[in-house]
Amino acid sequence: MDFELAGRVIVVTGGASGIGLAVAQEAAAQGARIGIIDSSPAQADAALAAFRAAGVEALVEIVDVRDEAACEAATDRIERALGPIDGVAACAGISRPEPSESMLEETWDAVIGINLTGVFRSIRPAGRRMIQRRRGAIVTISSTDGLGGHAARAHYAASKHGVVGLTRSLAIEWGRYGVRVNAVAPGVVDTPLLRRNVPPEHVANAMIDRVPLGRFSTAREQANACLFLLSDASSYISGATLAVDGGLTAGYFTRWGGADYGSNALLERGLYGPPATPGA
Ligand SMILES: NC(=O)c1ccc[n+]([C@@H]2O[C@H](COP(=O)([O-])OP(=O)(O)OC[C@H]3O[C@@H](n4cnc5c(N)ncnc54)[C@H](O)[C@@H]3O)[C@@H](O)[C@H]2O)c1
């Protein structure tokens, strides 16, 4: 899908894996220049090698998004190498499910630190430059856990609700400078993060069963939404949270199978229909 990003400079945090990597790949395929900010040297080097082999102008900065001074220096180096940044996709994030009553403080701090504080700290350096130039677009990655709660993910859901609030607030502050800020809220996306954190049978039986489209999202489908929000095709959209979730958050009674005999299951069994006696 071409969002006319040729020649644009797009920075992707968490761009070495999963959704971030797909954003970087899709943007590169449209002719964008790519700056990746990621804390994983091995994955980032592999991504960079693939970009260079394909002739893509790309740069990798190994940075922890919680370190704002390092993000500032990385942003500076990316601009000197690739030119003024047009768009940022803040995709770096982690998930470490733990029950709330026994959750370690370090787990809480890591998830809030990377998923919320890290988003703020990693987009601010580019945001300041965009304000000066009076143009730019930023997309943050929330989650359907930013729209509702999730067991064993109090920290994660708090961080992702926080991303929605952060995104709306930045959209209000920076809109007058021509800088748009939006969030994507992915549902269940088949990435290394999902495979690491959720037992396969839970994914198949519980997660997919609730998705009206009946399947995972690919990382590429999330990337398409991000690139739309980074492109001029969304020039009047700011402060929005776009659920890219196959309908997961469209309603409550969505299950097809399982013990709760959701409305969809009853529909499939023919238990809904016009009354046998007209007017009854
Ligand atoms: N996979 C899903 O189902 C799903 C659903 C909703 C939201 N999300 C969100 O999407 C984003 C991307 O997730 P993913 O599934 O692609 O995960 P992933 O693990 O495949 O990729 C995450 C990337 O972030 C990087 N990263 C982690 N901590 C970092 C740090 N401190 N500083 C810099 N980089 C760091 C990792 O090295 C990795 O390259 C996350 O914010 C995640 O919460 C994912």
Description of the molecule:
- This protein is α/β, with parallel strands linked by helices and 280 residues long.
- The protein has one domain: 3-Layer(aba) Sandwich (Rossmann fold).
- It has helices at residues 18-29, 41-53, 68-82, 105-133, 154-174, 192-197, 200-207, 219-230, 263-268, and strands spanning 9-13, 33-38, 58-62, 87-90, 136-141, 179-186, 241-244.
- β4, α4 and β5 form a beta-alpha-beta unit.
- α1 packs across α8, α3 (68-82) packs parallel to α4 and α4 (105-133) runs parallel beside α5.
- The model has no long low-confidence stretch (mean pLDDT 93).
Which ligands does the model contain, each kind named once? nicotinamide-adenine-dinucleotide
Sequence of strands across the biggest β-sheet: 3-2-1-4-5-6-7
Give the radius of gyration.
Answer: 20 Å
Q: By CATH's scheme, which homologous superfamily applies?
A: NAD(P)-binding Rossmann-like Domain
SS summary, helix count: 9
CATH class: Alpha Beta
Mean pLDDT reading:
93
Helix content: 40-55%
Number of strands: 7
Strand content: 5-15%
Q: Structural class per helix/strand content?
A: alpha/beta
- Largest sheet properties: 7 strands, parallel
CATH topology title: Rossmann fold
How many domains comprise the coordinates? 1
